[in-house]
Amino acid sequence: DETEFRNFIVWLEDQKIRHYKIEDRGNLRNIHSDDWPKSFEKYMKDVNCPFKIQERQETVDWLLGLAVRLEYGDNADKYKDSTPDGAKNTDNTAKNAEPLINLDVTNPDFKAGVMALANLLQIQRHDDYLVMLKAIRILVQERLTQDAIAKASQSKEGLPVALEKHILGFDTGDAVLNEAAQILRLLHIEELRELQTKINEAIVAVQAIIADPKTDHRLGKVGR
């Protein structure tokens, strides 16, 4: 709801972030003004939010992270000895051995970094930043390592395919989705062909073994 969203932003600024002086919060508090989006966009720039005004979910998440960080800064003595329930029984040696175990995934800087990497690598956004980080790791391992790059440079280019010549068999009602479905179907067919090739190779290997059995006359049977 638009009104609730605007009230939420005002509450964050008034109660937690407090970036503006009280007398400077008038435009942000005027949630019924037609110019409120402009005031909100200016506010995002003033607090150095890395997201655009259209990216509401990411913006809300980032502002919440900022609010939590500021709340902790104002009450550091209260929170400094707090320990997450799941970490009370962890082994300190294991913590020291794993440099990323204490990584704060709620830190706005961490989330902004993951988002920047995802945008750079053209990875689909996800609500869970850890899922996005795993996707980045997989992409780097499979496409950007030296071995992966060397292997890709040796691969032969495929032949161009005219999608309009391949019948999809159903209609999603969206031309873009239809094209994506055609591509997925062609990729699936290619995978099936590779699987069939491997099955054929396995059959040939088995036939090579059973075509020349060892005969043991003492046992009165063929084979072992």
Please count the beta strands (DSSP E, at least 2 residues each): 2
Helix content: 55-70%
Beta-strand percentage range: under 5%
The total number of structural domains is 3
Question: Gyration radius, to the nearest Å?
Answer: 29 Å
Q: SSE string, helix = H, strand = E?
A: HHHHHHHHHHEE
User: What's the helix count?
Assistant: 10
Q: What best-fitting shape do the alpha-carbon axes yield?
A: elongated
Family: Belongs to the RTRAF family.
Protein name: RNA transcription, translation and transport factor protein
Q: How would you portray this structure in words?
A:
By secondary structure, the chain is mostly helical. It has helices spanning 2-17, 26-29, 36-46, 56-74, 76-79, 92-97, 108-121, 129-144, 146-154, 175-210; strands at 215-216, 221-222. It is 60% helix and 2% strand. Strands 1-2 form a two-stranded antiparallel sheet. The protein is elongated and about 90 Å long. The model has no long low-confidence stretch (mean pLDDT 80).
Question: What is the topology?
Answer:
Elements: H1 2-17, H2 26-29, H3 36-46, H4 56-74, H5 76-79, H6 92-97, H7 108-121, H8 129-144, H9 146-154, H10 175-210, E1 215-216, E2 221-222
Antiparallel strand pairs: 1-2
Helix pairs in contact: 1-4, 7-8, 8-9
List keywords for this structure.
224 residues; mainly alpha; 3 domains; two-stranded antiparallel ribbon; 10 helices; RTRAF; RNA transcription, translation and transport factor protein
